[in-house]
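Usage example:
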Amino acid sequence: MRTLLRSLAAGVALLTCVAGASAMSSGKPEYGPRDETERGLWQQMDEYERELKNSEFLMNDPALNSYVKGVLCKAVGAERCGATRIYIVRTPYYNAMMAPNGMMIVWSGLLLRTRNEAELATVLGHEFAHFEKRHSIQMYNNVKSKTDAMTWLSVLPGGFLAQMSLMGSVMSFNRDMERQADLVALDDLARNGYDPIAASEIWEQLRAEMDSTSEGRRMRKAMDNAGDFFSSHPNSKERMEYLRAAAIGKRSSGQTMGTESYRRAMAPWWPQLINDQIKLNQFGATEFLLASMARGAWTADLLYARGELYRARGKEGDFASAIGFYKQAIAQDALLAESYRGLGVSLIRSGSKDEGKKALKQYLEKRPDADDHGIVSMMATTS
Amino acid sequence: MAIAATAALLLTPAASFAESRQSLTKEAFAFPAQGQVRVVLFRPDVSVGEQSTGGLDQPNAGWTEQAREQLTAALGKAQAERNIELKLMPELTGDDAKLMSDYRKLFKTVADSVIKHRLFLLDPLPTKQEKFDWTLGEGASRLGALGGGEYGLFFYTMDSYESGSRKLARLLASTISEEQPSEVNMGYAGLVDLKTGDLVWINVDVKMAGDVRTTEGASLRIGELLDGFPVRAGIKATKVKK
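Running the assembly step on the lines above writes:
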């Protein structure tokens, strides 16, 4: 128990994050450290940020970074977003984290999962609310006061039950913060022109994926069960309900989802995002993820992704399935050149060499400056 | 953050070690007897904080800054006494900063491995017990060019002092149970030959003396941190008494 608590204290103290955390409120934004404790935490995070800036895993592309920052700035307003620095880290899992010094970390797996600007804004705005409301510092202070109390209680005979209830309340503080961040973000989104219904949609999708992952892995499932009492996530159903209820009152005609602009901004990165996900080698989980992202409507980018998934597995019948997905993708969006590449390779692998080479040549015509131009043109010309 | 992992690695079994300090020098290594010896100091990783009653470390920005300055000054003085010039690695930008960052991580990984497999023998590697042959590779020479020195020195310290209420709680608890973690005062230092990239000396101590918040303490700490530090050829190395 002491070990659990210590790792909890260490992990929770400095970063609040989507996958495991949460929020409070007050007047005008003011972001600097306020006391000795905050200065200490800021300094530690500044040290971490020094190293992060040099990480090989950062996606440094200026266009991508300014786009993501732009979405946050639109959601919370230019005067508030200026206090943050966003780092996009290439890793195929979903998370976004916010440190008390204004460092925001966005994992590329999140960019894969959000389907439009409003959804991305939901997650970024949620993290921003943690920052603005100083949640990580409150968590730290809360954990500190609770661990202090626990130390005193452990000195007293019979203090064990009291310790247990204190641990529960450490986590419920967290749930309150999560809820507050949700609602603050939703308010910001709606006020600044994004459709607030996006909030319940993206959280629902992420929650569904999390449930399916823990069902898929017994260990995770067991941990989730053991963690019920400590669960830091607001109840899924309850969360969707309050998000949806709050959104309905705040919808208006000028708001957008930003689906098309999001798709355009992600287009250059899409093949890489998909490739990173597929390399996790979790066929079932990826299939579930794509289906939950589709929400019943398979768009070209998702069809392409599904084609890649089947082609990568390459079991009996997979190439035929992949060919079908690529063809549907091309029918919907002939500009997604990578679909031709996948189609060409799948056709060749399943024996239709000439047709396959033709598709590869189409890929090369559409992407004359592709990184893999050399190898693809070799495949397209040799027999 | 990485130092916390090292701390966890070391702290658990620390009680069972006869010696809290372990150092090793590459066989027959000594600085040249004559001429200039320049050691580039890479930005020290220093963390100083205070433990709450519950044992949670609360980092203290003021103490940390102060400790970094005082440790660096004490280190410069100690090296000057050995006729070694200490040079501070300048603040780097762009690709140079990336390179430095990569080598810092590589050093930590190598040092962790030496600490675990060789110094404290938590998990001894059969092929690494005889020779002391750990290296960062020849590419490390680029750091020598950037810093203007023949050797590179990394050091890390982590201190978490007990607050008054923490001390009292531990005192009370000791009457009914024994295991109560207390102060953390640990550090390690490693010297790299920047021509070859070889690690030539390493020293680790999980129970260090010297309150790094004071000038005298920082100087005492540096004395311990440099325990067994190589000397110029022909001079007998001294061991600091525990």
